[in-house]
Amino acid sequence: MAGAYDDRDGKIWMDGRLVEWRSAQVHILTHALHYASSVFEGERAYGGRIFLSRAHSERLHASARMIDFEIPWTVDQIEAAKAEVLAANGFKDAYVRAVAWRGSGEDMGVAARRNPVRLAIAAWEWGAYYGEAKMKGARLDVARWKRPSPETAPHQAKAAGLYMIATMSKHAAEAKGCSDAMMFDWRGYVAEATGANLFFVKDGEVHTPLPDCFLNGLTRQTVIGMLRERQIRVHERHIRPEELEGFEQCWLTGTAAEVTPVGEIGPWRFEVGALTREIAQAYERLVRA
User: Per-residue confidence at 174, pLDDT binned at 50, 70, 90?
Assistant: First the structure.
């Protein structure tokens, strides 16, 4: 499937039923469009099975509660809807996007308790998020925007509003010929990329930023478990910028990114080493098991 995302053949599940792809629309006065009252999940299906599907559906509910609304479909209903979408479109390997939001209703200001909560699920065929970087190593810029204090926003919600600075940072990175950007947090510690978590290797041990102001990704948690099963020591901690020069390898994790090696971040260089390749290959085997 190719072309603009609003002009494709296929079906999208929307508010309890399948609709034609081009008919899956919302009103211009939808609250989420104006005030970012929206949460979402990005998931991948491999061979017809969505990896960590239920965990994603549970997190969608948790994210909604964090930004003060309840999704009127249960986790079981969301699971059934995702399976229905894959079947209706004939997909086996696909990216799945579930999104819940405050729609249009009686309120059109900051508060919107009288507006209905809506839910949609779409799926499309999507290859490697970083293209050839999946094998060669991605180039990352250093973002000017920083992840804010957890007192500023509900950082463990996968909420649309938290991605505004990520979009700006990725655009700036792409303008420089990079695939993505690394973001620091408000204290100056290494945080994450715009839509993926970061891992570093030094002397056979792995270091990854402590997710105390950004999303603790499901893929991140999976990879940490894989490393520990291999008796590889993992340090979840605050990482200072000056430490980057001493790391030997680096990779990104995320549902879209999967496990993608990083060759450079700004002035820092990394090898696409044996551990990076081992974990990438092991993750690929796991999701297709």
Answer: very high
- The Cβ-side half-sphere exposure at 131, using a 13 Å CA radius, reads 5
The single-letter code of the amino acid at 255 is T
CA–CA separation, 14 vs 30, rounded Å?
15
Is residue 11 flagged as an active site residue?
no
Using one digit for the tens of pLDDT, what is the confidence trace for 245-282? 999 999 999 999 999 999 999 999 999 999 999 999 99
| Helix ranges (DSSP H) in the chain | 31-35, 53-66, 75-89, 133-136, 164-175, 218-229, 274-287
Does the structure show a pLDDT above 60 at 115? yes
Of 244, 239, 251, residue with least CA distance to 282: 251
Q: How far apart are CA 41 and CA 60, in angstroms?
A: 6
Query: Looking at residue 276, what DSSP letter applies?
Result: H
User: What structural domains and CATH numbers belong to the chain?
Assistant: 11-124 (3.30.470.10), 133-287 (3.20.10.10)
Q: Running DSSP on this structure, what letter comes out for residue 169?
A: H
> Which residues, including other chains, have CB under 8 Å from residue 212's CB and lie 6 or more apart?
150, 155
Per-residue pLDDT tens for 206-223? 999 999 999 999 999 999
Could you say which of 11, 82, 146, 158 is catalytic?
158
